[in-house]
TrEMBL record:
Domain spans labelled Oxidoreductase molybdopterin-binding: 286-433
Region span, Disordered: 162-199
Gene source species: Streptomyces hawaiiensis
Signal peptide from the UniProt entry: none
Cross-referenced InterPro entries: Ig_E-set, OxRdtase_Mopterin-bd_dom, OxRdtase_Mopterin-bd_sf
Compositionally biased intervals (Low complexity): 189-199
Molecular-function GO terms, alphabetical: heme binding; molybdopterin cofactor binding; sulfite oxidase activity
Annotated keywords: Membrane, Transmembrane, Transmembrane helix
Membrane-spanning residues: 78-98, 105-123, 129-149, 213-231
Record's protein name: Molybdopterin-binding oxidoreductase
UniProt keyword Membrane, yes or no: yes
GO biological process, one term: sulfur compound metabolic process
Length: 560
C-alpha cells in the first residue's frame, strides 16, 4: 500500500473490531485454562467454568431443564456446556471490544467476569478458602493478556476504513509477514489478507504487531484448549487413584446370598442385579464432581442436639450393612429404564441420626452434595428401620465417581430426587415448612414414595412373533412395600397371573414371567402389579411431574 511505500505517518484510526473480539476471546480462554489448572492443583469444583456452569444449571427454570432432558435424554450435559461456552464467547468478545476502545473498560469487564467466577465458586456448597483462587488467578492472567494484546495491537492504519473495498488489490501486502522480511519481499508477495489495512508500521517505525498479536491470541486459545481438558483429567486421575486405593470394609451385616430364583430365567429380561456399567445415571452435574476421600467431610447439623462431622475414615470404621436396593428416578416414564438394582454397602443413617439427636420438629433431612444439589427426605423414613444407607460401595466396589464417590445416600422406597444424594457432604435436620429442596423448588412433590410400577422387557415392543408359546416377562417394583402380584392381559382380555421370581427383600424389583399362547394378528400386551399392601397399580396414564408417572406399560406385537 502506498503509505508503506512513502513512509508517510499513518492516520490514527480504531483497529478493526475483529481484533478486539479476538483479544477478548483469547483473554477469556486463557482465564478458563489457567483456572482449570489452578483448580486441578487446589480442588476440582472451583474451576470457573465448572462453578459458573453449576450456577447456570441451578438457575435454569424447570421447563428449560425438562426440555434439555427430553431432547438430550441423559446426554444433556455436553449440550449445556456448549451453550455456556457460546454465551461466554459472546461476553468475551464484548469485553475485547471494550478493551480496544478504552483499556480500562475492558479490564473492568475482566474484573466483572472474575467476580462472577469468584462468587460462583465461593457459593458452591463445598467451597473452601481456596475456591476463589482459580477465578482470581484466571482473571489476572486474562487482564495481563488483554494489556499485552492491546499493546501489540497494530494501532495505526495506513488506509482509512472507507478507502477499503473492491479496489483493494490482490497485491496488497501482508504487512505482518513483511515485518519479518524485507519490505521488497513483502511488496512482491501477493496476499489475499483482507486485514492488511490495519497492519502497518507503528509510530516508532517498528514492525507492526499483527503477527505477534495473532500468535499471542491464537496461542492463548490453543493453550486453553489444552489446559481445560488437561486440568480436568489431572484432577480426575488423582481422584481415580484415590478411589482405587480405597479398601472397603466387609459388612457386619452382609446381603443375603441371592437365590437363583431371583431370576425368572427368561432371556430378554433385565438382570436382577444391574451392572454398574448399565446403571442409569441422572444428575444436574455438568461435570462429574471429583472429590478425594481425604477431603470428604460429612457435617450433620441443624435441628440436632449434638452436631457431628465425620471423615471418610471415620465413616468406614463404622459397622457396615450390605443390601440389594432398587433405585428409581421420578422422571422414569411408564416402561422406561431409569431404574436399577444394585448391591449397596454403607452405614445405616438411622444410627447417625440417633447419635445427633434431632429435635422433635425436624421432619426433614436436607442432604447436600459437593456441587450444591439438595434433596429433602422425611426424617421418619430415615429412622423407621428401613435400610437407609450412607453408601460407600456399589456392587462390591467403591462407589463409582458418576454414582456419587466417595459417599451417597440410598433410601429404599423413595424416588432418587428426594433421597439418593450423590457426592454427599451435608445432612441438615430441618423442616419441610422451612426448606424446599432442589426439585421441589422446581415443581416436584416434597414427598415422593416410589409408585408401584411394572415393565414388559420381553417381547420387545413392535416385535414380530411366530404363533405359539411366547414367554412374556419383565420386572415390577414397589420398593419397601414389595410386589405381591403381577398380572398380564392380552388385548382387553382377562388379567392373568404371572409367575413371580423370589426376592431378597421388599426393597428390590421383582422379575415376573407369563407364558402366552400367541395367536395370529396384532396384539396389545399390558402389565400391572399389586404391592404388599394390596394396592393395584393404577391404570390412569400420568406424566412424571410432580411425583412419578402412573399407567400400565402397554406394548404392541404382531404375530404372523
Ligand atoms: N448430587 C446429586 N445427587 C443426586 C442427583 C443430582 O442431580 N445431584 N440426582 C438424584 C436423582 S434425580 C436420582 S434419580 C438419583 C440417580 O442416581 P444414579 O445416577 O446413581 O442412578 O440420584 C439422585 N442424586
Ligand atoms: Mo431422579
Amino acid at each position: 500500500m502506498e503509505t508503506q511505500g512513502t513512509g508517510r505517518p499513518a492516520p490514527e484510526r480504531p483497529p478493526k473490531e475483529w481484533y478486539g473480539e479476538l483479544a477478548g476471546v483469547a483473554a477469556t480462554a486463557l482465564a478458563l485454562g489457567v483456572g482449570e489448572l489452578v483448580a486441578a492443583a487446589t480442588g476440582g469444583p472451583s474451576a470457573p467454568l465448572v462453578a459458573v456452569g453449576g450456577v447456570a444449571v441451578d438457575a435454569a427454570p424447570t421447563p428449560v431443564k425438562e426440555f434439555a432432558v427430553a431432547v438430550f435424554y441423559t446426554y444433556d450435559k455436553l449440550a449445556l456446556q456448549a451453550g455456556i461456552v457460546l454465551v461466554l464467547a459472546a461476553f468475551a468478545a464484548f469485553i475485547g471490544l471494550l478493551a480496544i476502545r478504552r483499556l480500562r473498560y475492558g479490564l473492568a469487564g475482566v474484573a466483572v467476569f472474575g467476580a462472577i467466577g469468584v462468587l460462583a465458586s465461593a457459593t458452591r456448597a463445598s467451597a473452601t478458602w481456596a475456591y476463589p483462587l482459580p477465578s482470581v488467578v484466571g482473571a489476572l492472567a486474562a487482564a495481563g493478556l488483554l494489556v499485552l494484546l492491546r499493546r501489540t495491537l497494530p494501532r495505526r492504519a495506513a488506509v482509512a476504513a472507507q478507502d477499503l473495498g473492491d479496489d483493494t488489490s490482490p497485491g496488497d501486502t501482508d504487512v505482518a509477514a513483511q515485518g519479518e522480511r524485507t519490505p521488497v519481499q513483502g511488496a512482491r508477495s501477493p496476499s489475499s489478507d483482507v486485514d492488511a489495512d490495519v497492519s502497518v508500521v507503528d509510530g516508532a517505525g517498528q514492525p507492526p504487531g499483527r503477527r505477534r498479536f495473532l500468535v499471542l491470541a491464537v496461542g492463548a486459545i490453543g493453550a486453553a484448549a489444552v489446559a481445560v481438558p488437561g486440568g480436568r483429567r489431572l484432577w480426575a486421575q488423582r481422584v481415580a487413584a484415590a478411589r482405587a486405593a480405597v479398601v472397603l470394609p466387609s459388612p457386619s451385616s452382609p446381603a443375603p446370598p441371592l437365590p437363583a430364583e431371583a431370576s425368572a430365567g427368561v432371556p430378554g429380561v433385565k438382570p436382577f442385579v444391574t451392572s454398574t456399567a448399565d446403571f442409569y445415571r441422572i444428575d444436574t452435574a455438568l461435570t462429574v464432581p471429583q472429590m478425594e476421600p481425604k477431603d470428604w467431610r460429612l457435617r450433620i447439623h441443624g435441628r440436632v442436639k449434638r452436631p457431628l462431622t465425620l471423615t471418610y475414615e471415620q465413616l468406614l470404621a463404622r459397622p457396615m450393612v450390605e443390601r440389594y436396593i432398587t433405585l428409581a428416578c421420578v422422571s422414569n416414564e411408564v416402561g422406561g429404564e431409569l431404574v436399577g438394582n444394585a448391591r449397596w454397602l454403607g452405614v445405616p443413617i438411622k444410627d447417625l441420626l440417633d447419635e445427633v439427636q434431632p429435635d422433635g420438629g425436624a421432619d426433614q433431612v436436607v442432604s447436600r452434595s459437593v456441587d450444591g444439589y439438595t434433596a429433602g427426605t422425611p426424617t421418619a423414613a430415615l429412622r423407621d428401620g428401613r435400610d437407609a444407607l450412607l453408601a460407600v460401595g456399589m456392587n462390591g466396589e467403591p462407589l463409582p465417581v458418576e454414582h456419587g464417590f466417595p459417599v451417597r445416600m440410598v433410601v429404599p422406597g423413595l424416588y432418587g430426587y428426594v433421597s439418593a444424594t450423590k457426592w454427599l457432604t451435608e445432612l441438615e435436620l430441618s423442616r419441610f415448612s422451612d426448606f424446599s429442596a432442589y426439585w421441589v423448588r422446581r415443581g416436584y412433590a416434597a414427598q415422593a414414595p416410589v409408585k408401584t410400577q411394572s415393565r414388559i422387557d420381553t417381547p420387545a415392543a413392535g416385535k414380530r412373533l411366530a404363533p405359539g408359546p411366547v414367554m412374556v416377562a419383565g420386572v415390577a417394583w414397589a420398593q419397601h412395600r414389595g410386589v405381591s402380584a403381577v398380572e398380564v392381559r392380552v388385548d382387553d382380555g382377562p388379567w392373568q397371573q404371572a409367575t413371580l421370581a423370589t426376592v431378597p427383600s421388599v426393597d428390590t424389583w421383582r422379575q415376573w414371567s407369563w407364558p402366552w399362547q400367541a395367536t395370529s394378528g396384532q396384539h396389545r400386551l399390558q402389565v400391572r402389579a399389586t404391592d404388599n399392601t394390596g394396592q393395584v397399580q393404577p391404570g390412569q396414564a400420568r406424566k412424571p411431574l410432580p411425583d412419578g408417572a402412573t399407567g400400565w406399560h402397554t406394548i404392541k406385537v404382531t404375530v404372523t
